[in-house]
Structure formats: structure tokens, C-alpha cells
Design a protein that fits this description.
elongated, nine-stranded mixed sheet, alpha+beta, single chain
Length: 1496
């Protein structure tokens, strides 16, 4: 970067490589592949594949380190030179008691170093003043012209720099007997890979940071008193900072400040006093213990008391040796000598105030050796977390923005601005060169201490793992046993923003690889190895002062130089930003440097490949010239690899052989020179067992291995054979050679290496002879394969010759594979990919040209002869008249077996296809052949369009096309007849079918039309048979006939079928006896099926097949058997249910069998009812129960209130009561109507059986009721009822209104009985629309009145003997099984009720259930009543309209139907009415109308 230019120009980017996974698997191989490109830049960047992401293996909690302190402006070489210059000039003035303050010119600090350097370049101070070129000096310092800056620069130069330059030139030095420090600076011993010595020094006792900072602070303005005391300052009016010397107003240090400094006074100073009274001269001695003030006072006394006659004459000027003009004689506070102020150079205008030192003392101070520059270790220890927090906080504060938002370009420019600034001092910390062996690597490492996951094991063995790469087989460092930190063992780097690594090359000029694990980028700069010496020359040229004091400065890694400066002097520089997850490779002797963009974590290590060996040897020679220590012995490394040549990679063996040869030749020369010197004594020494510091050359510091010269008298040292004259002064007879190998052993090792190195050449020669058939003999396939196996086993490199061998083997294998496939296909007669005749000939030619002897070539020749013979035969067949398909097919089969495609085979195939197609057409059109479908004929036509044309084929295609046209026309006519709404007479259909009989094609529509005609004719015959027959047909036969007629277009309508399908399923179940009544689960499942509409067919119920149902006798026998089974089953069920515990019992007995309601729950507590037939228990709310308030009376005459045996309390569960149970008279009328139908129904037999069963039971019941005992009981019961009627009661039963319910019951039991009796007598009237509202309003009061009368009920009324009761109970049970209502059933039930006490629990339960039902529906009934009144008139009108419409529609539908169809419709209607008569009520009596529907 040019002076005065603040803009940093980034160098060009280095090469960036992105390897594929195949390339990435071989790290050193890939690096060798990119080396020709990347080596030209010195460094390169490698981006691994995206999914290569090694885990971070450092134990973050245990990772602690101490970083180094870096002051940025001390890193840059030119800036450090300026700072060192300022330190020297400041030290010069401090020694003389003045503090340096750097002045400001044009609002910027004056660069004193540049000013001094430019003055020297322009000819010096005198020449510039003489030629008045100070304006040019100001121009070169980039100050604006025209402001008289030159005069001001001259003024500052004269008062600050010129005295120092005069001192540096030695013009004011005096010849004095001093003992300065030895100017020969000892060589800085470079201790490689050791943190206390590399890049670091101990902190200086006197830090220069604060001193430099104070120099940049402006001095306080001089006071008027100062100006008055200093006439020169008053005259020049210069108030700026800087030492005021040479008449420019030197600012002496305050006494308070100088007290703390150590000042040495003369040991003894003699002063002549006035004579005392005795005339003797007394002397005053100043002792060393006098304090500083005493010294100053004495010094001033000696300076001012020059007129004292007692002044000692020996105090003379050290320059002129005179003691005159003692008022201008100046005393040195350092050594005590005296100088005239006018004898000094430059002369002083007056005696300065304060402490002053002479040029001799200043020279002695300046000849002290400077401290070596390095980085100090910080005092604070960090963890990764604490260091990261510090680093991020520093960067965020510095740039005043979040760390991730700071651009890398901005950080780069700011970094180079800071390192080039002498005004700004920025200090950062860098955790560099941290041992991974101690703190742990960032990569997973395979060891026995920890168990790794499969993913970690993969990365632990990867060649790109920096712990693995140095010890790979292709790496030279794997042959070094010691774990060299930084070279074989990685170092870790924890960086922050601006932390830098300075220009350096790797130890032994090796490769290096750096991986950034995570964090912000790291910026790199690189210089190729070809420009390494140029870079060193430029840095030495621009900063010679640094290299004078530290010749190996670039090896200390502590010096930067701006890349723009290097580029301006012709040094090629490249740069790159290394992001997390990327590698940076540096090549041998490639200088590199850089800095961190922020907080990050990196890891680096060295590695060496075969191509490095010559570079490593040159590095050792370079180290010898610099007298620098080696990290390892290069000779030892070469010999160790040469000792086991079979383990070396071939490229490595070749390189080692070349190095070994050079090394042996050099060793011969050196030992010959040793013999010429006369040294003949020698002894073998195992140098590898000695520590490195015991086998280092005293002169060049190299590590000896092959040989060294030692002395018997000086056993502590040795030298290499290149410095045999620098060992000691002892006689050569006392010196002896220490050697590792003799000169005979070294050639043996070299020969083994040669065999290994030349093994490739031997192998290559054999391969070349085999591939080029130089000896005229083709090798076998096995011999060529052996050569390839030898290359793989001996790890020969992948060369062009090896690739040719592999390609040859691949071609041979391909040829053999083709031949084997060809021959095996012929033998096994399998379909294999065929070769063309041309390909077969090319294969034969290729097998002859390959340098491999293949016996399969004879098989190929045989196949070729067969193909040529077949080709001739095929041509003959094609030339003759059309051959038969059999002959053509045989020729084609033979051609396929050859495995070769012959051109004539295609023509044979075409001819055979034509013949086959013509045969198929001929067979399809033959009259005797089976007619093919229309699709087949169309397929034949399509197939004919695909084959090759010929006269015969064209003719057949035309005929086939004409036939298809005719067939399609008749198909359309048949389709029209089938789909048309107008029905055609059978004669028309017969005519169409007759016309198509001559067409040799199967026509689907014609066939369908023929089948329809056949079915229609059969249906007409069936109808005629039924109409002309003498017996009644079954309904199933009639329905099937109607269905067939409908399908044929001549059937009846569909209304009757809908009725049949909806009603016929349930009626047989009601009419037939329940044969499985003994199973409660079966009854329940049947009831569930009935409620859910899942009815079984009648055949399943009767156990009869469809054919048996046609026989009335079978139906009757089955019905009788079902009756007996039903009776036996109900008796068994009653016994089982009677044994179940009663839910009403206070302490129910424990029993395994319990009652289950229809809801699936166990009935318990109040509200449970027991069925009078099956004796099972149910929830009252889940079933339909008798109603005391609204039940209809069995007779016109109402019973008195206390005739409780006539109350409607009989309860039959829904499992027992399967229908509405119509009266017997209704069933008889229905049976008479069925007999008038001309159709026999299965339900008719079932209805007849039911009627016969009911009449039979009625006869038995009447006989029982007419017996003498029963008649007597009935008479008694009638008398008792008359007695109840004779009791006082109102003359007529008033209609019950809400007023009755509102009157309180205060008139006693008579009044109450009268009210309740009126309630019961008018129960039917309560359900009328006029009284419904009032009845609902008084329901609760009615139920309370009935409940209050329960205690007055007494019984039993009759005494039934056992002989009378049992037959009646049996009749009652059988009557309950009948699905018919009979008066005798009611009479027997009343008689049995009167013969036992009143069932108060059941009556109470019924009252409670009715009360709950009325309470829940009260609110709902009011709203419904209001809506009902509004809609009453409209509903009536709409109902009448609907009835009229329905009647009209029915008349319209029945107007066009025949008389037989009308009779069938009447039959269906009667059947529907009959079934509706038996159906169970859907709302009033179904349990599903209750509140427990969901429980089912």
C-alpha cells in the first residue's frame, strides 16, 4: 500500500476446488491432482462435499487456554520500524531529561521516521537547507503545497531529529575508554513447536505502550512565565509539542518526576573552599548516599561556582582537555565527566537545566542489545464460552453492529488500516498453537478411552481428519515415530476479530492443511514458493532495521507486511476467505499469513508427500546457512524409509531412491575429505537413539545422523562433516568419525530401493511387450490378468500403460462373453440378444486384432460358416413360388437358433406373416367354421393392414371389409329393435333373424334379439297355460311370470311388487307359532330383528323349503309341530324366569340368572313390571304398559270403582305380544276374502292354521267357562259387582273436566269414589280432541286420586279351588300365545284376578309410570295443541285433496291393465290390509317410542 493511500485493494482470489465424492475419498491423491494448478498460487481452498460434516469432538466444558496478546500496529513490519524509531528517539531525549511530544502538522501527527528517511534520501540536512528543498520534503510527506509547511518541517527536524541523527552518525562521540556491549548479537536459537519460544516473549519490565501513548498527547500550552524565561521560545513563538533544545526552549522534566529515577552522582567530588584560619585547605566529599537533590545542588554548584579560586584544575573538558571558561563547563550526571557546551556537536547555547548525560553515556545506553520482539501471554485463562463472549462483545462494540452483519470487506480494510497506524493502538487476543494432544482434537479420534458412534468412527478414520492425514501411507511423516506437535499432531486455534497469523513458511517447508470447524471466516494471504525469496528480499529491503537485529525474523511468525506493499514490489499475492467447514492447503515454501474475521475455531497440521522430498533437502541446506535448528533429521527420515522399501508407495519409493542416491554421493565426498585431513579413527553410533540436542552440529545446528566428527578431548560437542574445521583446536589425531552406516551398507540400501523403484519399469516393460506383441507371441488371458494383479498387489501408480492393460482385458472379457452367449444360446435354444451378421464379422476381426490368444475364435468361425449356409438356403426359398407357412416357420426357427440376425430372415418373416394371415381369414370365412365375433373380424382387418402388401393380401382385405360393412349394418338394425320404445311383432323379429343367418360372423345384437324372441314366445306359452289351466297358480309363480313379462316389455306394473317386498317378510312371522319360545335370547333377537326391520323369510320360520311351501299339507303339519314346540318352550321359559329374583324385593337373593330388559340393563327397584306370560321383568319405561286413565273398556257397562279385577292391569312384554291381535271375526272375514282370489298364497295356509287354532282354543275356553264350578264362580262375581253398583253414586257420570281436579277432596270416601268412578267411566272421552287439553291439565290430580284409593281395595273376591284354577291358568297361557283377541281370554283373566289379592305393587307402578309420562309431556303438549288448532282446517282440506289425487292416480294406473292383473292387484291390496291388521302399533305400544331407545 503506497504511503498516503488509505484504501486497501484486495489481492486476487486463490483457486477453489470442490471435489466429488470419488475424488474426496483419496485426500493425498486429490491434492497431488490439483497441485499443478494450486502450487502456482501458494495456497488453495477446498470445499468438501455438502454432506461431509464431521462432528465437533472437543470437550467444551474442559477446554481452557491462555491466549497471546497482539498489538496490531506492532505486527506490521514498516509500522514496527516506525515505532522502534520513535522508541529510540524518545529514549534519546529521556536520557537527557526531556520527554518527547510528537507535534501535529496539518491536523495529523508528524511521521518522524518518514521525515528522517526522506531527508536522508534527499541528501541530508545540510544539502536540503542549502538547496532549500524543504517544500519537496513536505510534498513527499503528502502535505498540501502553499502553506509554508516546509519551514515548519525544518523547524521540527532541527529541534527533534537533527540532534539524534548527529548522535547516530557519531560526530559528537568522544574517544573514551568505555566498555560497550559486544555488538555481535548471538544467533537466536529457534526452538521449534514450543509455545514459550515461538511467537512469544516474556513481558518487558518497561512497557512502551503507555510511553507511546503519552507521546501522542499534546503538551499544555506554555505559560507567560515560561515564555519570559526562555527568550528563544519568546522569539520564535513556537508553542507546539516536542523537546526544546538548541535554543528552542528545551522542556526539562519536573523535579517531582525525576525523583523516582535512579541518578548516580560522582563518588567523590572535591571542592576548594576558602582557607581556614590555619591556612589549610579543607575538602568536602559528597558520598554516594547523598540524595538526588543534593546531587543536583552540587552539580549546579560546580557549574556556577566557576570563579571560585578553589576550583580544581583537573576538571577539564573531555573534548578539548581544557578547563578554561568553566562557566560553560557542563557536568555529566551519568559518568561525572565535563564538557564545554560549545565543544559538543551540535553545540549547546547554554547550560541545560535538570539531568544531563554526555554522548559517551548515551552511546553506552544505545549499545545495549534490543529485546527480541514477540507476543506476550495473557494473564487470564479462558473457556470457549468466555472467550467467545469477549470476542463477540469486542467486535460488536468496535463496529457498532451485530457481529454477523459486519461485512468481511469492511473488517479486512479496517485490519490493514489498524496495523499501519502509529496513532491507534488496538490490542486483541489469539489462542494460537494449542496442543490437541493435551486439549483434544476437534475431530473424532479413535482410542480406547471413549466409545464412538458409527458416524464418529467414519470421521475418525477419514483421510481428511487432521489426526489421520499426516500418517497416511502416502505421507512421509508416517515414518517418523515421534509425535511432533504441530507437524504430526494438530494444533488448535481460537481466534477473535483482528487476531492475526504473520508471514511465515512451514517447518521444513512442508505442506500444511487448516480446517475451520466453526465460527466466522478466516482471511488468508498466500505467496507461491517461486516468489518466497523475492518476498524475503522485499521485506529486508523495506525494513532492514528489523532484520539487522533479528536475522531469522520471518521464522518467528511475528511480522506482517501489507499485501498491497508486496504487490507493488512485484510479489504475487492471493487471498481467500475460509468459511466454516472448508480446508485451506499451503504448499511447500509458500509464505502465508492472515487474520480472523471474528470468533472461530480452527485446526491445522503439516503433512509431506513424495514430491516434497527434494524441497525438504533444500530446506535443510537453507537451515544450515541460517544456523537454525531442525525439527527432525532429514537423513534419518530417508534412511528409515529406505530400510523397508517394500512398505513404500511406488511414487514414494522412486522419490526416496533419488534422494538416497544424492545423499550417498554427498556422504562419500565428505568422508573422503575427512580421510584427506588425516582422520582415520571411527566408531559406529546409533544416532537415532540420541536426543536431538546431543547430536546437533556446533556450527550450523543441523541434526546429524549419517555421520559426525567428534573429539576425544572435547566430548561435549560434535560437528557435521561439512564443518570439520570448526570442531575444536585439538589435533586431528584426537578426532574421530562417528557413523551410522558404512559406505558398503549404504549402496545395499540404495540397491533395494532401486529394485522397488524399478519394479514398475520391469513390469511396464513386460506389459509393453505383451500389448504390442513385440516377440510375436500373443499372451493368454490368464497371463494378462496376472500382470494386472501384480500391479494391484505391488501398488503401482495408475499410469497410461496400466490403463491400456485394463482396457485390453475389458475388451477380451467382452469378446469372450459375446462368444459364450452366442454358443450357449445355440446349445440351449434360448432367446438371447442376437448379433447382426456385420457385428459377427467385426467380432471375429476384433478377436484377431487383440493381443490375447483366445481359443473361442474357432467357435466364432464355425458360427459364421453356419450363418452363410443358412443365408444361401433362405435366398433360395424366397426365390421359389410362395412356400407353405410350415416351411417358412422351420427356416425362421433355424435362424433364431443361430443367434445371428440374417438380412433374409426379415423377408422370410414377412412372407410367413402373409401366409398365416391368409389362412386365418380363410378359416374365419369358411361356411363350416365356427362363426367368429365382429371384434375378431375387425382384428383380422387391422392385422391385415400391418403386414406387407401382396395381391392375395389385398384381395382378402377387400372381401373382409365388405363382409364387415354388411354385418355392421344388420347389427345396427338389431340394436334399433332392441332399444326402440315401440314393440315389434315377433314376425318382424323372425324376418330380421332369418336374413342374417347367411352372414359368417357372430353378431351380438342379432343373438340378443334371437334370445329375446325365444323368451317372449316361451312367456306367451306360459300365460296361455295358466289361463287355460284348471288349478290355481301359486303367487310365486305368478310373480315370476309378471317379472319375466316386464323384462320382455309385456309384464305388469311395479306397484304390486313393492307391496309384496315390504309386507311379505313380516306377516308369516306373526301368523306362525314361535317354535323357539323357550329361548329368551332367541326371542330377543327376533324382537330386535322385527324392530330394526331385519325380518326372516317364512321358509326359515316354518323350516320348509320353497317347494314344500307349495304343498298345503306340509304347511299345516309344520304349523301343528310349531304349536307344540311353542307351548313347551313357554312353559320352560316361565320356569326359568320365575326363579329369577324379583327387582321389587327389598333384599334380592343372589342368583346367577337375572332378568335383562330390552334395553340391555337389569331391571331394579320401583318401575319394574313382570310379564304375565313369560314371567320376565322389564323396565316400565322401556316397554308399552297398560294405562289406567285412558284404557278402553271391554264392555259398554262400566265397572264400579272397587271392581279392581276388571281394571286394565294385564301386561304382556313386547317379546310375547308380537302383533295388534285382531278379533277372530276380522280374521274369518279375511280368510273368506282370500278364498275368492284365483292365486294361492303361503300366508293363506298360515292364516287358516291360526284360525283353526283360535277356534279350537275358543271351544275349550267356552267349555271351561260353562262348567258347573266356573259358572258358580262367575255368578258370585256378578253378585259382588251388583253389590258395588248398589252403593250410592251420582245419577249420571258427569264429563270429567279440570274443575273436578281442582276441587279439594273433603267430602269423605263417598265423594272421592264418585269422582274417581266418573273418571274411569269416561276414560274414552278423555282422548277426544275436545277434552284432551283439559285431561292433560288434570292428569296429575287424577293419578293422585287413584293412588289415594289403593288402600280401600280388598281381595281376593273369590276362592278358586286348585282343580279349577290350574286348568284356567293353562287356558290363559295358551290364549296369551294366540295372536288373536277373544272375549273368553278376558273373562278367564278377570276370573283369575278375582281369585287372588289385588296386585297393589303393579297398580302403583303403573300409576307412577303414567305420572312420569304426563309430567314430561305437559309442556310439549301445550305448544303442540296450539299448532294443531291452527293447522286443523288446512290439514283436513289437504287430506281430502290427497285422497282424491291418490284415487285418481290409482284409477289411471289400473285403466289399461287386464282383468287378471286387476285381480292380482286386489289380492295384493287385501294382503297388505291383512298384514297391517296384524302389525304391532308403531307409536303407542312400541318400546322405541319410550325414552330408552338409545339403550338398545
Amino acid at each position: 500500500m503506497e504511503p498516503g493511500s488509505d484504501e486497501f485493494r484486495p489481492p486476487p482470489e486463490c483457486p477453489v476446488f470442490e471435489p466429488s465424492w470419488a475424488e474426496f475419498r483419496d485426500p493425498l491423491g486429490y491434492i497431488a491432482k490439483i497441485r499443478p494448478i494450486a502450487e502456482k498460487s501458494g495456497i488453495c481452498k477446498i470445499r468438501p462435499p455438502a454432506d461431509w460434516q464431521p462432528p465437533f469432538a472437543v470437550e467444551v466444558d474442559n477446554f481452557r487456554f491462555t491466549p497471546r496478546i497482539q498489538r496490531l500496529n506492532e505486527l506490521e513490519a514498516q509500522t514496527r520500524v516506525k515505532l522502534n524509531y520513535l522508541d529510540q528517539i524518545a529514549k534519546f531525549w529521556e536520557i537527557q531529561g526531556s520527554s518527547l511530544k510528537i507535534p501535529n502538522v496539518e491536523r495529523r501527527i508528524l511521521d518522524l521516521y518518514s521525515l528522517s528517511k526522506i531527508v536522508m534520501e534527499e541528501g541530508g540536512y545540510e544539502a536540503i537547507c542549502k538547496e532549500r528543498r524543504w517544500a519537496r520534503v513536505a510534498q513527499r510527506l503528502h502535505y498540501p503545497p502553499g502553506k509554508n509547511i516546509g519551514s515548519l518541517l525544518r523547524l521540527h527536524y532541527e529541534r527533534i531529529i537533527y540532534p539524534y541523527e548527529m548522535f547516530q552518525s557519531g560526530a559528537n562521540h568522544v574517544q573514551c575508554n568505555t566498555h560497550p556491549f559486544d555488538s555481535e548479537v548471538k544467533d537466536k536459537e529457534y526452538k521449534p513447536h514450543s509455545i514459550p519460544f515461538r511467537q512469544s516473549v516474556q513481558p518487558s519490565k518497561f512497557s512502551s505502550c503507555s510511553r507511546r501513548a503519552k507521546r501522542l498527547q499534546p503538551d499544555p500550552e506554555p505559560t507567560e512565565e515560561d515564555i519570559e524565561k526562555n527568550p528563544e521560545l519568546k522569539k520564535l513563538q513556537i508553542y507546539g509539542p516536542g523537546p526544546k533544545m538548541m535554543g528552542l526552549g528545551l522542556m526539562a522534566k519536573d523535579k517531582d518526576k525525576t525523583v523516582s529515577k535512579k541518578v548516580t552522582c560522582p563518588t567523590t567530588v572535591t571542592v576548594k573552599d576558602k582557607q581556614s584560619g590555619d591556612g589549610k585547605v579543607s575538602s568536602t566529599q559528597l558520598r554516594p548516599h547523598l540524595n538526588l537533590d543534593s546531587c543536583i545542588k552540587m552539580t549546579m554548584q560546580l557549574r556556577k561556582n566557576h570563579s571560585n579560586a578553589q576550583f580544581v584544575d583537573c576538571y577539564a573538558c573531555q573534548i578539548c582537555s581544557r578547563g578554561d571558561e568553566d562557566d560553560k563547563l557542563l557536568f555529566c550526571d551519568g559518568c561525572g565527566d565535563y564538557y564545554h557546551i560549545f565543544c559538543l556537536l551540535p553545540p549547546l547555547p547554554e547550560i541545560p537545566r535538570g539531568i544531563w548525560r554526555c554522548p559517551k553515556c548515551i552511546l553506552a545506553e544505545f549499545k545495549r542489545p534490543p529485546e527480541a520482539f514477540g507476543f506476550e501471554q495473557a494473564t487470564q485463562e479462558y473457556t470457549l464460552q468466555s472467550f467467545g463472549e469477549m470476542a463477540d462483545s469486542f467486535k460488536a462494540d468496535y463496529f457498532s453492529m451485530p457481529v454477523h452483519m459486519v461485512p468481511t470487506e469492511l473488517v479486512e480494510k479496517e485490519f490493514w488500516r489498524l496495523v499501519s497506524s502509529i496513532e491507534e493502538e488496538v490490542t486483541v487476543e489469539y489462542g494460537a498453537d494449542i496442543h490437541s494432544k493435551e486439549f483434544g482434537s476437534g475431530f473424532p479420534v479413535s482410542n480406547s478411552k471413549q466409545n464412538l458412534s458409527p458416524e464418529e468412527k467414519e470421521y475418525a478414520t477419514s483421510g481428511w481428519n487432521l489426526n489421520v492425514m499426516p500418517v497416511l501411507d502416502q505421507s512421509v511423516l508416517c515414518h517418523i515415530n515421534a509425535d511432533i506437535s504441530g507437524m504430526k499432531v494438530p494444533w488448535l486455534y481460537v481466534g477473535m476479530v483482528f487476531s492475526a497469523f504473520c508471514w511465515h513458511i512451514e517447518d521444513h517447508w512442508s505442506y500444511s492443511i487448516n480446517y475451520l470447524h466453526w465460527g466466522e471466516p478466516k482471511t488468508w494471504y498466500g505467496v507461491p514458493s517461486l516468489a518466497a525469496e523475492h518476498l524475503e528480499e522485499v521485506m529486508k529491503k523495506l525494513t532492514p532495521e528489523l532484520f539487522d537485529s533479528q536475522p531469522d525474523l520471518l521464522h518467528q511468525l511475528v511480522t506482517l507486511m501489507n499485501p498491497n506493499t508486496l504487490m507493488s514490489h512485484g510479489v504475487p499475492v492471493v487471498r481467500t476467505n475460509q468459511c466454516a467447514g472448508e480446508f485451506v492447503i499451503t504448499f511447500p515454501r509458500a509464505y502465508h499469513s492472515g487474520f480472523n474475521q471474528g470468533y472461530n475455531f480452527a485446526e491445522a497440521v503439516n503433512f509431506c508427500t513424495a514430491d516434497w522430498l527434494p524441497t525438504g533437502r533444500q530446506c535443510i541446506e537453507h537451515y544450515r546457512r541460517l544456523r537454525r535448528y531442525c525439527v527432525f533429521s532429514h537423513e534419518e527420515l530417508i534412511c528409515k524409509m529406505a530400510a523397508f522399501p517394500e512398505k513404500l508407495d511406488l511414487n514414494l519409493a522412486v522419490a526416496v531412491h533419488k534422494e538416497m542416491f544424492i545423499m550417498v554421493q554427498e556422504e562419500r565426498r565428505l568422508r573422503k575429505a575427512l580421510l584427506e585431513k588425516g582422520i582415520t579413527e571411527a566408531e559406529r553410533e546409533a544416532f537415532e537413539l540420541l536426543p536431538d540436542d546431543e547430536r546437533q552440529c556446533l556450527k550450523c545446528k543441523t541434526t546429524c545422523f549419517l555421520s559426525a566428527l567428534a573429539c576425544y578431548d572435547c566430548p561435549d560437542g560434535l560437528v557435521c562433516l561439512s564443518h570439520i574445521n570448526d570442531l575444536c583446536k585439538c589435533s586431528s589425531s584426537r578426532q574421530y568419525l562417528r557413523y551410522r552406516y558404512t559406505l558398503d551398507e549404504l549402496p545395499t540400501m540404495l540397491h533395494k530401493l532401486k529394485i522397488r523403484a524399478e519394479s514398475f519399469d520391469t513390469w511396464a516393460n513386460k506389459v509393453r511387450v505383451a500389448l504390442e506383441v513385440e516377440d510375436g507371441r500373443k499372451r493368454s488371458f490368464e497371463e494378462l490378468r496376472a500382470l494386472e494383479s501384480e500391479a494391484r498387489e505391488r501398488r503401482f501408480p495408475n499410469s497410461e500403460l496400466l490403463q491400456r492393460l485394463k482396457n485390453c482385458l475389458s475388451e477380451v472379457e467382452a469378446c469372450i462373453s459375446q462368444v459364450l452367449g452366442l454358443v450357449s444360446g445355440q446349445v440351449a435354444r434360448v432367446d438371447t440378444p442376437h448379433l447382426t451378421l456385420t457385428e459377427l464379422r467385426v467380432l471375429l476381426e476384433q478377436m484377431g486384432s487383440l493381443p490375447c490368444a483366445m481359443h473361442q475364435i474357432g467357435d466364432v468361425k464355425d458360427v459364421l460358416e453356419q450363418v452363410e449356409a443358412y443365408q444361401a438356403e433362405a435366398r433360395e426359398a424366397l426365390a421359389s413360388p410362395p412356400s407353405s407357412p410350415g416351411l417358412l416357420q422351420s427356416l425362421l426357427e433355424r435362424g433364431k437358433q443361430l443367434g445371428v440376425e440374417v438380412p433374409e430372415a426379415h423377408q422370410l418373416q414377412q412372407q410367413m406373416e402373409q401366409a398365416q394371415w391368409l389362412d386365418e381369414v380363410k378359416q374365419a370365412l369358411a361356411p363350416s367354421a365356427h362363426r367368429g365375433s365382429l371384434v375378431i373380424m375387425q382384428g383380422l382387418l387391422v392385422m391385415g393392414t400391418k403386414i406387407t402388401s401382396s395381391p392375395a393380401v389385398d384381395k382378402a382385405r377387400a372381401e373382409l371389409q365388405e363382409l364387415l360393412t354388411i354385418a355392421e349394418r344388420w347389427e345396427e338394425k338389431a340394436h334399433f329393435c332392441l332399444e326402440a320404445r315401440q314393440k315389434h311383432p315377433p314376425a318382424t323379429l323372425e324376418a330380421i333373424i332369418h336374413e342374417t343367418e347367411n352372414i359368417p360372423v357372430h353378431l351380438p345384437n342379432i343373438q340378443a334379439l334371437k334370445e329375446a324372441l325365444t323368451k317372449a314366445q316361451a312367456w306367451i306359452a306360459d300365460v296361455d297355460e295358466i289361463q287355460n289351466g284348471d288349478h290355481y297358480p301359486c303367487l310365486d309363480d305368478l310373480e315370476g311370470l309378471v317379472a319375466v313379462g316386464r323384462d320382455e316389455g309385456e309384464g305388469v306394473g311395479g306397484e304390486g311388487s313393492l307391496v309384496i317386498s315390504s309386507l311379505s317378510a313380516f306377516l308369516p312371522q306373526v301368523l306362525c307359532p314361535c317354535a323357539d319360545a323357550g329361548s329368551d335370547s332367541t326371542k330377543r333377537s327376533r324382537w330386535m330383528e322385527r324392530e330394526l326391520g331385519l325380518y326372516q323369510c317364512d321358509t326359515e320360520l316354518l323350516g320348509l323349503s320353497a317347494q314344500d311351501l307349495r304343498d298345503p299339507g306340509s304347511v299345516i303339519v309344520a304349523f301343528k309341530e310349531g304349536e307344540q314346540k311353542e307351548k313347551e318352550g313357554i312353559l320352560q321359559l316361565r320356569r326359568i324366569n320365575s326363579a329369577k329374583p324379583s327387582p321389587l324385593a327389598p333384599y334380592p337373593m343372589a342368583c346367577s340368572a337375572t332378568s335383562i330388559c330390552v334395553c340391555g340393563q337389569v331391571p331394579a327397584g320401583v318401575g319394574a313390571l313382570q310379564c304375565d306370560l313369560c314371567q320376565d321383568w322389564f323396565h316400565g319405561q322401556c316397554v308399552s304398559v297398560p294405562r289406567l286413565l285412558s284404557s278402553p273398556r271391554p264392555s259398554l257397562t262400566s265397572s264400579p270403582l272397587l271392581a279392581w279385577w276388571e281394571w286394565d292391569t294385564k301386561f304382556l312384554c313386547p317379546l310375547c305380544m308380537r302383533s295388534r291381535r285382531p278379533r277372530l271375526e276380522t280374521i274369518l272375514a279375511l280368510l273368506v276374502a282370500l278364498q275368492r282370489l284365483p292365486v294361492r298364497l303361503p300366508e293363506g295356509e298360515a292364516l287358516q292354521c291360526l284360525t283353526e287354532r283360535a277356534i279350537g282354543w275358543q271351544d275349550r275356553a267356552r267349555k271351561a267357562l260353562a262348567s258347573e264350578d266356573v259358572t258358580t264362580l262367575l255368578r258370585q262375581l256378578a253378585e259382588f259387582r251388583q253389590q258395588l253398583e248398589a252403593k250410592p253414586r251420582p245419577e249420571e257420570a258427569p264429563a270429567y273436566t279440570s274443575d273436578i281436579a281442582c276441587d279439594p277432596i273433603r267430602e269423605g270416601s263417598g265423594n272421592t269414589i264418585s269422582q274417581v268412578q266418573g273418571l274411569l267411566e269416561n276414560g274414552d272421552g278423555l282422548t277426544s280432541p275436545e277434552n284432551k287439553a283439559s285431561a292433560k291439565g288434570s292428569d296429575n290430580t287424577d293419578l293422585e286420586l287413584l293412588s289415594s284409593m289403593l288402600p280401600q281395595l280388598t281381595g281376593p273376591v273369590l276362592e278358586l279351588p286348585e282343580t279349577t284354577r290350574v286348568p284356567l291358568e293353562e287356558l290363559m297361557m295358551e290364549g296369551d300365545l294366540l295372536e288373536v283377541t277373544l272375549d273368553e281370554n278376558h273373562s278367564i283373566w278377570q276370573l283369575l284376578q278375582a281369585g287372588q289379592p289385588p296386585d297393589l305393587e303393579r297398580i302403583h307402578t303403573l300409576l307412577e309410570l303414567e305420572k312420569l309420562e304426563h309430567q314430561g309431556s305437559r309442556t310439549r303438549s301445550r305448544a303442540m295443541e296450539r299448532r294443531r288448532r291452527r293447522q286443523k282446517v288446512d290439514q283436513g282440506r289437504k287430506g281430502e285433496d290427497l285422497v282424491q289425487e291418490e284415487l285418481q292416480s290409482k284409477r289411471a294406473r289400473s285403466s289399461g291393465i287386464k282383468s287378471a292383473e286387476g285381480q292380482g292387484r286386489e289380492h295384493l291390496q287385501e294382503k297388505a290390509d291383512r298384514e297391517n291388521m296384524f302389525l304391532t302399533p308403531s307409536t303407542n305400544h312400541s318400546p322405541f317410542s319410550k325414552g330408552n331407545q338409545n339403550s338398545l
